[in-house]
Amino acid sequence: MEVKLDKQYPLDVDAERAWQLLADLKAVAGCMPGAEITEQLAEGSYKGAVKVKVGPAVAQFAGQVDVLEMVPAERKMVMLGKGADKGGSSATMNLTAVITPDAANPAHCVLNGTAAVIVNGKFAQFGGRMMVQVSDMILAQFVENFRQTALSLPAPAAAGGAAPAASADAPAPAAAPPKVAGELNGLAIFWALVKGWFAGLFGKRA
Amino acid sequence: MNAPAQTAEARELALAGMGASRLRKEDARFIQGKGNYVDDIKMAGMLHMDIVRAPVAHARIKRINKEAALAMPGVHAVLTAEDLKPLKLHWMPTLAGDVQAVLADGKVHFQMQEVAIVIADDRYIAADAVEAVEVEYEELEAVVDPYAALQPGAPVIREDLAGKTEGAHGKREHHNHIFTWDAGDKAAADAAFANAPVTVTQHMHYPRVHPCPLETCGCVASFDPVRGELTTYITSQAPHVVRTVVSMLSGIPESKVRIVSPDIGGGFGNKVGVYPGYVCAIVASIVLGRPVKWVEDRIENISSTAFARDYHMDGELAATPDGKILGLRVNVVADHGAFDACADPTKFPAGLFHICSGSYDIPAAHCSVKGVYTNKTPGGVAYRCSFRVTEAVYLIERMVDVLAQKLNMDKAEIRAKNFIQKEQFPYTSAFGFEYDSGDYQTALTKVLDAVDYKALRAEQAAKRADPNSPTLMGIGLVTFTEVVGAGPSKICDILGVGMFDSCEIRVHPTGSAIARMGTITQGQGHQTTYAQIIATELGIPSEVIQVEEGDTSTAPYGLGTYGSRSTPVAGAAIAMAARKIHAKARKIAAHMLEVNEADLDWEVDRFKVKGDDSKFKTMAEVAWQAYHQPPAGLEPGLEAVHYYDPPNFTYPFGIYLCVLDIDRATGETKVRRFYALDDCGTRINPMIIEGQIHGGLTEGFAVAMGQQMPYDAQGNLLGNTLMDYFLPTAVETPHWETDHTVTPSPHHPIGAKGVAESPHVGSIPTFTAAIVDAFAHKGVTHLDMPHSAFRVWKTLKQLDLAL
Q1: Would you call A122 helix, strand, or coil by DSSP?
Q2: Which of B605, B620, B619 is nearest to B13 (CA)?
Q3: Is A90's CB within 8 Å of B55's CB?
Q4: Separation in Å, CA A111 to CA A143, B149, B171
Q5: B100 flagged as catalytic
Q6: Option in B55, B57, B713 nearest A88 (CB)
Q7: Is B172 a catalytic residue?
């Protein structure tokens, strides 16, 4: 089953720091709930794992991530992730992520992601119709983690056009990266889905 | 031993023979939970099997690691194709002349394909060990669309067939092509179209569905290494054919193979085939020398054992401007999945699809069916129908409606105009079928009068005129003919065995009897109805007649129960065997009464001397004499065997009418009325017939309104649980009204035609016709199934009819 995602997330982070984080795949993986990079195979090629917990069942996807393209001038990164779990599911994701500066506010930027995700096996069979909602949830968690991690990076040194107010407020560069959830928690996802569904219902009526 | 002095009528009633609504003998044990199904069977030392299945539809197997599974306590064996290779059992022949991997041999062809088996002490350990078997796959591009499969650059599904240009049914044109099968006269049909004033065409897809019987498939295989004998309890609709196949595959002499079909919880075609699971359990029992049980779960059942239908059909009709049909052309692309494992008579790769000229006198017709491989589950069984007859009836009934709409004719009128007339029977169709008997017009008139068809059409017209009507009203009418009772062995065989069926009757000294049959009941009530045939033929009360089926060691060889063949074929065998006994009984009675046989009359349960009512011998008295002191020159005993090879198929028919209302706000459909008139010839047990019709209509409702097996582009089956797959309960099921006419089959010994499948075959196009009819005034000629509320609502939206 294939799901196409096309998302824009406005961030209160300047484009420089956002790109700095995006270019570091290992750090990006750290922002993905439940994901980690376990081994570097070559330049731009990594082994990784994602753990998803739904109630008592844990699915552990093991796989490989390859950076296909890295264009600093456009702040663009293209990657291909492939993984499978022992219980008979597999997934591939072809993702293009681009950071675009916010023209109106240099301290802000937009994280653009377009992805084609193909899921096979049990996840597709039993979770297929929830996939869009679940990916939205996971991506929302990811973006929040990404935002916090990017904000914790040292502010760009005398970046041309950086708002002075922002520099003044910038915390000490040594701020520890925020703690992110260690695994995808099925119950939390489920709760968020239910909330989202109700919100949608009432939203439509309003 | 003298029978009480009762009138002939009273004695006939007491027999509870043909025509009696006798209560089902089977039900006492079923409603008490005392049935004996495969999963009820427990044997000493029995082990359990579970199957490692492929998560993806198309892949190469790079590596299988059994170590972790084998290390688990309670696991006895893990077998893969490599282990079956030395036994030459990693592939097996299919009923359709193809081969199928028993366990994936280096390559996976469909999702949920069998990759390895685990044998363990219990089902739970086996299931845990399945998770521990590590299989590494290299995924390949999957092909799920049969049209895409035939493109020049399409991925090769069956690498094992590389270079094989000749299939079981002629030339293969493409690496994913199985066969092209033609019937009828193409030149004559083309000529009819070339000169026709009116033509219509319609494309339609009959979705892939699953019979989904309540009991899933399974077996208990028990090989006795000391005696060299194999006994297998199995969910099979054709145990004798399974015995032959098992003997051929295993090399064990057929005399040492015993196949037993115990109680079967519904088959509907799902239990005709020989599945990899059965073969694996048998191999495991032979290897381990212990009984091995395998029972699939619901997901496995829907995903991996025999689907039905999946026909992409293009129909064309040529006609005169006043609606007389001149010609029919049909082209079908048939999605058979990854292996051609259809269950059809050998010479008919598209079954009896060429019954698609229906109840109509069509002078020229041609059809062509192209079988195609895709990365989907193999199958293509007759789901509660005779081979592909459901598809054929759907096609012609839809096409007649399309023509009626084009000509602005009434849908009942156009049918009446094209019916094969009563006096034309026996009628030979353009496809070569010889229809035995029928009276379609009488039946149609009866139905139209019963529902007041004119008033319904008037009500519909009024609703259409009212833009504020909250509902759309649809009327579906179908006038179908089936072809069942396969079949004459000169044209019908399964793996070379002719499609006869058999019966052995033994009348015991005290006048009770046992009948053993080559068929096997799966809910049809054979134990009840077969006894009624014997009761009427031999004058023995049905209550004291035992009917046994399903054990190949005791029953005579038969081809089994599917395609509504039990009554047309085995029912005839019963009557013929009974008549052999009757002939011998007459000789004995003549001897006892000291008259010539010609001086005897038969009356209900006795032979009477002509002209003297006081001189008679009942069948019970004759039976005693047969064992006590038979006449000189006659063998003792009173029994007979008959193998019946039918001279022709039988052709039951029906007229179905459905009225439904579609909620314009939600797309939900409410069936207001469903009137089903069936003509199955002579009726043996009206109560069982009605029950069969209710069941068939309900399954038809299920198919039309909700059942489907949706695959995504990667070959994932997205609906293989009962949460997704629609099985209607009493909540959803509409109320059924049934009716009948009786037009006996002239070539059948008791005139019976078979009935259980008619309601399924006939009702499905009736629902579609009614749904389409609701939108007909907007120019809609066809809508594909299933007619779920969401899909109907989408149509409402498109046509700007949604409220």
Answers
A1: helix
A2: B605
A3: yes
A4: 9, 40, 57
A5: no
A6: B55
A7: no
Is B55 in contact with A120 (Cβ distance < 8 A)? Answer: yes
Q: In the numeric block, which tokens belong to residue B451?
A: 């529902």
Please name the residue that has the structure tokens 């390895």. Answer: B116
pLDDT, block means (10 residues), chain B with 803 residues: 74 97 95 96 98 96 97 98 95 94 98 98 97 93 98 97 94 97 98 97 98 97 97 97 94 97 96 95 96 97 96 98 98 98 93 98 98 97 94 98 98 98 98 98 98 98 96 98 94 93 98 97 95 98 97 96 93 98 98 97 97 95 97 96 97 98 98 98 97 97 96 93 93 97 97 95 98 98 98 97 94
**Which residue out of B342, B385, B492, B658 is catalytically annotated?**
B385
The strand pair at B545-549 and B218-224 is best described as unpaired
Written out in words, the top-level CATH class of the domain with range B38-140+216-264+271-304 is: alpha beta
Q: How far apart are CA B517 and CA B501, in angstroms?
A: 8
Give the strand order in the sheet containing B545-549. Answer: B545-549, B513-517, B501-507, B639-644
Cα gap B78→B55, rounded to integer Å? 18
Domains of chain A listed by start with CATH number = 2-156+178-201 (3.30.530.20)
Q: Which residue of A has its CA nearest to B111?
A: A121
Q: Please tell me what DSSP assigns to residue B551.
A: B
Q: How far is CA A196 from the centre of its chain?
A: 19
Pick from B312, B342, B339: nearest CA to B157:
B339
Six-digit token string for B208:
């892939």
Does residue B426 have a cis bond before it (omega within 30 degrees)?
yes
* Fold held by B8-35+501-644: Aldehyde Oxidoreductase; domain 4 (3.30.365)
User: Residues of B with CB below 8 A from A86's CB?
Assistant: 131, 134
User: Residues of B with CB below 8 A from A122's CB?
Assistant: 55
Q: Choosing from B237, B460, B524, B532, which is the catalytic residue?
A: B237
d(CA B174, CA B189): 27
The three-class DSSP label of residue B233 is: strand
Structure tokens at B90: 């990693």
**3-class DSSP state of B477:** strand
- When CB atoms are compared, the residue of A84, A87, A120 closest to B716 is A120
Q: Is B757 a catalytic residue?
A: yes
Distance from B103 to chain A by nearest Cα, in Å? 17
Q: Is B385 a catalytic residue?
A: yes
pLDDT tens per residue across span B346-363: 999 999 999 999 999 999
Where do the structural domains in chain B lie, given as residue ranges?
8-35+501-644, 38-140+216-264+271-304, 308-486+649-798
Determine, for residues B139 and A90 on separate chains, whether the beta-carbon distance falls below 8 Å: yes
Chain A hits for B131, CB-CB cut-off 8 Å, are 86-87
* CB neighbourhood size of B425 (10 A): 16
Q: Given this chain, do its domains B8-35+501-644 and B308-486+649-798 carry the same CATH topology?
A: yes
Parallel, antiparallel, or unpaired for β B47-53 and B292-295? parallel
Helix axes A15-22, A131-152, angle to 10 degrees: 110
Q: Select from 1.20.58.100, 1.10.1660.10, 3.30.365.10, 3.30.750.24 the CATH code of B308-486+649-798.
A: 3.30.365.10
Contact B718 A125 (CB under 8 A): yes
Among candidate residues B477, B391, B372, the one with its CA nearest the CA of residue B209:
B391
Search chain A and give the residue with CA nearest B65. A86
Which chain A residues are closer than 8 Å to B55 by Cβ? 88-90, 120-122
Nearest residue to B625 via CA among B634, A102, B105? B634
Give the residue among B118, B271, B97 at the shortest CA–CA distance from B168: B97
**CB-based contact A192:A137 (threshold 8 Å):** yes
Inter-chain touch B716–A124, beta carbons under 8 Å: yes
Q: Please answer yes or no on whether B137 and A84 come within 8 Å at the CB atom.
A: yes
Distance from CA of A129 to the nearest CA of B (A): 9
What token pair was written down for B76?
Answer: 């006895």
